Amino acid sequence: MSEFNLNSKDFYGALNTDKLLGSKCKVCGYQVSPQRAICPKCQSDDVEVVELNGKGKLAAFTVISVPPTQMAEAGYSGKNPYCVGIVELDEGVRITAQILDVDMFDPPSIKIGKPVTMTTIERGEGENRRKYLAFK
Ligand SMILES: [Zn+2]
User: Fold this and answer.
1) What does the pLDDT look like over 29-73, one tens digit per residue?
2) In a 3-state reduction of DSSP, which class is residue 71?
3) Domain residue spans of the chain
4) Ligand 1 centroid vs 26 CA: distance in angstroms?
5) Å from CA of 93 to ligand 1 middle
6) Separation of 47 CA from ligand 1 center, angstroms?
7) Which of 30, 50, 80, 119 could form a disulfide with 25 if both were Cys (CB 3.0 to 4.6 A apart)?
8) Whether the Cβ atoms of residue 120 and residue 129 lie closer than 8 Å to each other
9) Ligand 1 centroid to 112 CA: how many Å?
């Protein structure tokens, strides 16, 4: 059993302690992250919170140089692009997150299948400042 609950607030709470949460369906075994109260595969609500090991590989990515407002406010732009990727975790869970430590100006150098490990990145100002999931 995890000390965390199914609500999404706990997903960010766990990130603050560098833990990646997901949920596992007790009926069909499907895992998803962030955690959900209803299994997206079989619609069962018999799910439990699990801590994922945070390791996986890069399944897809895109480099963004025209950021949405929130990311522009965080300092990203055409001169400072960022990478968003889909990571397939060891548990088989796919999750979208920012990818760090890659060459944004040379996207072909970023390889699909590259092993990645979870980390966090802080964005936002004042009360809105919090850790977000990232991989490197
Ligand atoms: Zn299920």
Assistant:
1) 999 999 999 999 999 999 999 999 999 999 999 999 999 998 999
2) helix
3) 1-52, 54-136
4) 7
5) 13
6) 8
7) 30
8) no
9) 29
**Torsion from C-alpha of 71, 74, 80, 84, nearest 10 degrees:** -40
List Cβ neighbours of 33 (8 Å cut-off, separation of 6 or more): 11, 20, 21, 22, 23, 52, 89, 93, 95
CA of 121 to the centre of ligand 1 (A): 31
CATH architecture of 54-136: Beta Barrel (2.40)
Residue type for position 101: D
CA of 9 to the centre of ligand 1 (A): 22
On whether the pTM is more than 0.85, the answer is yes
Helices and strands (H and E) in the chain: how many: 2, 8
Q: How many CB atoms lie within 10 A of CB 24?
A: 19
Going from the Cα of 52 to the center of ligand 1, the distance in angstroms, rounded, reads 17
